[in-house]
Design brief:
Layout: H1 16-28, E1 32-45, E2 50-61
Antiparallel strand pairs: 1-2
Protein name: NUDIX domain-containing protein
Organism: Levilactobacillus fujinensis
InterPro entries: NUDIX_hydrolase-like_dom_sf
């Protein structure tokens, strides 16, 4: 089962896995355990000077 969650914006010095856990909690108000990052891509928003990262994760809602 797949649930789309908005783009993950990692905080300074934040690991992708930690950013995904935080975003899940913020966006869907559920705690998750991430077993594996299946895919990842990113793009740079020049107007905001930020990089956005998309992750495809395998995990469990807890």
């Amino acid at each position: 089962m797949f649930f789309p969650i908005g783009g993950i914006l990692a905080e300074s010095e934040e690991l992708p896995k930690d950013a995904a856990i935080r975003e899940c909690k913020e966006e869907i108000e559920l705690e998750v355990t991430i077993n594996k990052i299946i895919g990842e891509d990113s793009n740079f928003d020049n107007s905001k000077k930020t990089a956005r990262r998309r992750l495809c994760i395998h995990g469990l809602f807890i």
